[in-house]
Amino acid sequence: MIKLIVFDFDGTLVDTKKIIYSIIKNLIEKSTYQISHQLIKKELGDKSLKDSLSSLKVKSVDADKIEKESNYLTIKNASGMKMVKNLRKLKKFKQKKIILSNNVTPFITAVLENLKANFFDEVYGADKFKDKPAKLKQLMKKYNLKPTQVLYIGDKTIDVDVARKAGCISVSIIHKASWSPRKEVIAKKPDYVITDLMQLKKIISNLN
After folding, report:
1. DSSP codes joined into one string, the chain
2. At residue 70, what are phi and psi to the nearest 5 degrees?
3. Closest CA to 109 of 78, 76, 72
4. Which residues contact 94 (CB under 8 A, 6 or more apart)?
5. If DSSP codes are grouped into helix, strand and coil, which group holds residue 127?
6. pLDDT tens-digit profile of 71-102?
7. Over the stretch 109-165, which tens digit does the pLDDT of each residue have?
8. What is the reported pTM?
9. What's the chain's Rg over C-alpha atoms?
10. Where are the domains of the chain?
11. In the chain, how many H helices and how many E strands?
12. Cβ-contact 182, 162 below 8 angstroms
């Protein structure tokens, strides 16, 4: 019986890729680092901004400035973010719905408010946890749930790893807003693959 659905945010519920990538790319270039666009895009697709900047060999003092300014600019651009197909229909799902994202909480809540999608039970941005799998386990403990009662939905290859480490059921969504390429996501062998949020209904029905 599925009792909890945990969602990634960027690329899963909202199409943020183009705007966020542009903001971070411009900030990195402004800091005089010569890093290819392809490498920046790859790193951003799989990690938190802090970890991505570390992998890109950006000095910690510069990374802190980039992260701070990026958070400010993404929040400022919250009204420009578009929802993915059928986002609002998630409101009808009876299961508890939680967002667990590597983006910051103020940005997520601002986007949800703008999109009139304030029906998630809890929202945890990167400012509220250090490790996604650990936070997932904490949520399961909080609600006294077994891993088999929890779905984790994400669009990146790393999201499959997150679900696997936490022991819960992994669902990868592949659509135009996704950050990770379809081929790479499929190669990770998630438990389920969907192209539309409403396909979660069938998965839940089968598992229940």
Report:
1. ---EEEE--BTTTEE-HHHHHHHHHHHHHHTT----HHHHHHHHHHS-HHHHHHHTT--HHHHHHHHHHHHHHHHHTGGG-EEPTTGGGGGG--SEEEEE-SS-HHHHHHHHHHTT----SEEE-GGG-S-HHHHHHHHHHHTT--GGGEEEEESSHHHHHHHHHHTSEEEEE-STT-SS-HHHHHHT--SEEESSGGGHHHHHHHH-
2. -65, -45
3. 78
4. none
5. helix
6. 888 889 888 899 999 999 999 999 999 999 98
7. 999 999 999 999 999 998 899 899 999 999 999 999 999 999 999 999 999 999 999
8. 0.89
9. 17
10. 4-15+81-207, 17-78
11. 9, 8
12. no
150: tokens are 């929890």
How far apart CA 130 and CA 132 sit, in angstroms, is 7
Structure-token pair, residue 89: 């229909």
Structurally, at CATH architecture level, domain 4-15+81-207 sits in 3-Layer(aba) Sandwich (3.40)
Structure tokens that stand for 3 in this block: 């009792």
